[in-house]
Amino acid sequence: MSKLYKLSAKEVNTGIRSGEFTAEEYIIQILERIDKVNPKVNAVICIDRNGALEKARLVDRKIREDEKIGPLAGIAIGIKDNICTSGLKTTCASKMLEEYVPPYDATVVRRLKDDDAIIIGKLNLDEFAMGSSTEFSSFGPTSNPWNTDYVAGGSSGGSAASVAASECSVSLGSDTGGSIRCPASFCSVVGLKPTYGLVSRFGLIPYANSLEQIGPIGKTVSDVVMIMKTIAGADDNDQTVQVTYRTPDYTFSSNEKMRIGLVRELTEGAEPEISKRIYSAMDLFTNLDCKCEEISMNYVDYALASYYTIAMAEASSNLSRYDNIRYGFNFTPDGYEWNAYFAKVRSNFGDEVKRRIIVGTYVLSSAYYGKYYLKAQKIRTMLKQELRSLFKKYDILIAPTMPILPFKFGEKIDDPIKMFMIDIDTVIANLAGVPAITVPAGFSNDLPIGLQIMASEFQEQKLFNAALLFESNTNINRSPEL
Amino acid sequence: MVLMKQGDNEYPGIKIGLEIHCQLTGLQSKLFCSCFCNYHGLEPNGNICPICCGLPGTLPLLNKTAVESACMVSLALDCKIPDNITFYRKNYFYPDLPKNFQLTQYNAYGITSIGVGGSLKYGEKTSRIRRIQLEEDPGRLVYESGGIDFSSSYTLIDYNRAGISLVEIVTEPDFTDPKDVRVFLNKITSIIEHLGVCNTKRQGSVRCDANISIQGGKRVEIKNVGSFKEVEKALNYEIARQKTMSMHDIKVLAETRDWDDARKVTKQSRAKEEEQDYRYFPEPDIPTILLGEEYVSSIRKKMPELPYERKNRFIAYYELSDHISQVLIDNKELADFFESAVKIYSSPKEIANWIVTELLRYTDDDITEAKIDSSSIPNQSSSLFAGLKIDPNQIAELAILIDRNTINRNTAKIILTQIIKTGEMPSQVLARTDVLKIEDKIIISEAVESVFKAEKSAIRDAKNNPNVANFLLGKVMKLTKGRADPKITLNLIKTKLDGLD
Ligand SMILES: [Zn+2]
């Protein structure tokens, strides 16, 4: 039988529906593939073999008996391990939650199941999604499938690497400051950070609530769109989801003459090989009848500082609840006064998480609140306004997804500032709440480069049009040899 | 040095401020999830869900009705309502807080809570309301020994209360006398009862912290006061303590003290004294709630009658006196009782008098408190009439019997003493016993005759002593067990005395 695990989600779905192969045959191949390549990649940290096979047989039965089946029937999907799955451990790659089994499904997980997707397992990440390389995981780092000496990016390193390594057809990640786009770019796959308020966060274990969204990663733009149709839209369990966008129905309208702005500061700030690729992407769009211009953004320089101030402030409060009283890991409180117990159990956080809790606590303290947190929020507002006025003139903005190529393990882990700096291109979309997608744009020294496309709030359609236009006029490899 | 009498609170510069917490018991569910609002009588941790337990990934879902209730309280206390409100996280570690932060509101940086800058008149005085805010209640710690005992070897946590809606009312330090505080708290109680937002009789539904300073001293916080009634006692104790310190030139320092309900003293709180930095910041998971003029006026329209409005109606419609009306509306249960009785029999003045001057003598003010403090009956709301078997039907019938002259007031009083114990209707008591008034002149004459025979020496004094007639009346009443009509009897006695001449 052919290599079913290599197929795109759309191809899998078509094959299963038409009876070309069964969901069970496909899932067996996926499980074999995980067994074969995961020791090299370390993208999947928990495999739900029985659950996946059971669901595959159910899908097959439904098809055999001509029952109604969901639009994602049979597709193997991996879930970042900070998204709750009922009855399946959800650890955030932290020792703090090493024994935690959620009693409920995240809204996105429930919707995937309802649409007959098959949850294959949970995917690696930086502890509590804090990091840009998936090196800060209690399960060990995820390797880049293109070169296993290199990082996969982060924090959704497992989500991007598992798709690139064909351990699942699509995956869910979460993006707080680039956590979907960075690894998708590093692994040469497509990753979307939706508009803030388009996808329910119910069941996403928060790092920074006001910035993050759950989003899909896939081999193709249409795979990403397919998942969005299932997960997006109003949810009774999340009041920050905009009710007006209940059922997105994305249809492609090509040949629409797009107005495109290339963000000069971000493009010029990237490594030469990368900026060269972005400029040639602009040339490609121009040749496809789009109207392209270079534009300048004033607040880019302040974006990183603003982002990290807000993210760490929220994180310091979000992570307060991990005191091991109601859930967590095995550690008896016997003989401890509660303050001492809290202190003891909270030392179980990893170093990067501790660093962010400490900084976040500092910027929220009453003496510094005005100096840091409020100022960061002001910058955020100004950045939003700047983007709003840009999007009056341009349908989309393009820039690199990452300013650098994937790097080797350990290269930046000892220098937090260096690590923070690589988020410069991605944090803008999170601060402004706008959607952004990364699509493979080529390679330099056999390491992937990603093109980032941003659009105005809830204009995912424009993103998809541009991304598909680019994808269909380029031919970039998404399947590394492993 | 000026010596002062015990209990003299006219010390210069007494400043008292209050922080009142009221649970919004009128709601169906908690503030941010669908767990029950009424957790009484449920198994410990039997009223919890992933949201109120703060499980990772859950999001608060704001109960819009709670916002309405808090808005009503704010309007009743004359507060300004901002155009929009947000929730803030108050960060601190405590085992009863599932998320280790509390969702509350905040007043700074131009942001305000749901109510701000209000006032409430009580008697001739007014206290300013600084702010009113909507927030969530934490869980409850249960210590091994049952009380707040830090030597317990273990502590249990019950999250049934976690996430219950609270309205916090913060006053300016405008009170100078603990007695005023009691009057003010009674007034607040009546208002929230009338609004239907808080059943103050439900255990733990109202709590009050106080802060107090005297001239030259620092502000002392008093916490852990179990009921409104105890606040006055705690304040009196604290004033006496601070005065004594100041007389001995000991500085009163800023501190938090707990009210010891059993010993009736305040004592230094074991809580850490260091200034807490709560690191307030806006809750990103609850979008800003728009209120605005239209919203406020729609709430105003929905608002039930407030106590002062009800009082005015009682005076105008039922023609009751200011005093009687005030007594009735000061306790919603009493006012409701009155109106139910009046619906059965429309004799408002008679009924109001019976309630205020007679029935109230049998209600025990302390009974409410006693029940609140008792953990043995946690699920019972204690009524003002707790222990009495009285309802408006009985009082209405009593008024009917009086109006028809079937019984006199003294008889009615006797009947009342019985029916509050048995729950019978007055007519049942009448039928069963011989309490009917004797109006038959022949029967009364017989009684008068026998008294005259027994009291020969008194009758001899009758010419010189005008009180003899009344003395004889008393004897006749005693003989007839109070049933003889006094008017007829006195006439008969006087006629008979005159005839002796
Ligand atoms: Zn709940």
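qc> The longest strand of chain B covers residues 125-136.
qc> done
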